[in-house]
Amino acid sequence: MSARIIPVEPFDLVVFGGTGDLARRKLLPGLYHRDQDRQIPGTSRIIAVSRHEIGRGAYLDEVRAALEAHVPAKEREPEAVERFLRRLDHVALDIEGDAGWDQLRAAIERTPNEVRVFYLATSPDLFGPVCDRLQTFGMVTPKARVVIEKPIGRDLESARRINEAVGHVFEEEQIFRIDHYLGKESVQNLLALRFANSLFEPLWNAHHIDHVQITVAENLGVEGRGGYYDRSGALRDMVQNHILQLLCLVAMEPPQELGADSLRDEKLKVLKALNPIRREADVAAKTVRGQYTAGAANGQAVPGYLDEIKRNASQTETFCVLKAEVDNWRWAGVPFYLRTGKRLPERVSEVVIQFKAVPHSIFGDASRQIVANRLVVRLQPDEAVKLFLMSKDPGPGGMRLKNVPLNLAYSETFQDRYPDAYERLLMDVVRGNPALFMRKDEVEAAWGWIEPILEGWEARAEPPRTYVAGSWGPSAAIALIERDGRTWHEDAA
Ligand code: BG6
């Protein structure tokens, strides 16, 4: 089990949308693991809220089924499962009406001085109404916190509206805007890599880095989330939040310390320094959007996006590539190529730091074999840090050079199971530590950069380019980087 468990205070966690997909797939399995590790103190309770009355017994059956589906059998200890189930309850309530709110209050009133976490795993339109009701029914105590899931709006204005509505009831320190990428071990390792080693920092700038690639590829399609996804698309679903957060961690200046504000101040500066992609010519040259058609995944035929969402037409992108530029002293002239999509050949997320070529080669004919150094941080799956270096190919035959990786594979180096992103982030909420959550101004700055791209796409009125499911997106995505004389990283070893 995980190496070190830092205890948290007793808490009550109320999950709105408590019978939904996120609760079943991530929140409940995550909480089970924390409880199994004895991190959740004795009296803490978890109360799921949903619209329909189902009764506690039926709800517990649902949770049992969720744990069976989403916790590996070897981690499901009967005694730990039963202990976890004893913490759970269910309350039916009508978010926009009055029914059920008194029952919810009664359920948490018994512990007025404990930490209370309200987790809103609902549609963002309900964030404001839920917060209002929590206030009206007197549930917002000084130790209350609210967690809101993405998408926080669909553009700058709607994000501001949500921030305002939630901020009307909760202080900024009580608001936890979750981006689960920030809870991933490998994402936090970007901080360790950059700031716990003296090796990289002197090279981490435009003098030594040619460009950066950030890829978050998925091989799944939209998986029954077509209703949400078709209103969102890859840019809103993945880039506005997860990918821009990764970019910030790669590009930010060293924060003074790991405190929430130091870290978020530095990320905000990066978001503000992003060069706007606004003019039509920039939208055309620096972005590509795609939508998958029928193809294959894992050797099986799979339908195209339109068939999956059961519509005849849609302008929604399931893939996009952007060429971002951070306009500051450190990064002037260094492009950040961002790429994400569904139904790509594999599930892989990685950050690639491409260093510049050596200034002069002493190797004569073998010079052609020299490849510029590359640092690849594999975020998932098979977390690893690989530094590609030129080495002498051993043996006779003169000086032959070979590009080989120094490979730090997590699975070989660290044996323990480590907590999933949601587990860690939920415990951070209970502790009141917002460092790995997005501040209001960050969310708004990210929308501020994304919005002109969305507008540009709309103005050009060009449908997304098609790509066959199981391929690396439309050919224009390859052309975009190749026009600059560069190529997408393909793992060489
Ligand atoms: C979510 C997106 O935020 O992240 C999904 O809404 C996406 O569309 C998911 O599939 C990817 O998360 P992970 O942790 O599997 O990379």
Description:
By secondary structure, this protein is α/β, with parallel strands linked by helices. The protein has 2 domains: 139 residues, Rossmann fold (3-Layer(aba) Sandwich); 291 residues, Dihydrodipicolinate Reductase, domain 2 (2-Layer Sandwich). Helices cover 36% and strands 21% of the residues. The strands form 3 sheets. A 9-stranded mixed sheet has the order 16-15-14-13-7-12-11-8-17, with helices on both faces. The protein has a 6-stranded parallel sheet with strand order 3-2-1-4-5-6. Helix 9 crosses helix 10 and helix 9 crosses helix 15. The protein is globular, with a radius of gyration of 24 Å. It binds 6-O-phosphono-beta-D-glucopyranose. The site of 6-O-phosphono-beta-D-glucopyranose (BG6) has 2 residues, from loops.
Rg is 24 Å
Task: Give the name of the CATH superfamily of the largest domain.
Answer: Dihydrodipicolinate Reductase, domain 2
> Could you tell me which ligands this complex binds, including any ions or cofactors?
6-O-phosphono-beta-D-glucopyranose
Basic shape: globular
What is the strand tally? 17
Low-pLDDT windows of residues: none
How far is the first residue's CA from the last residue's CA? 30 Å
Classify the beta-strand content into a percent band. Answer: 15-25%
Count helical runs: 16
Largest sheet: 9 strands, mixed
The strand line-up of the biggest sheet is: 16-15-14-13-7-12-11-8-17
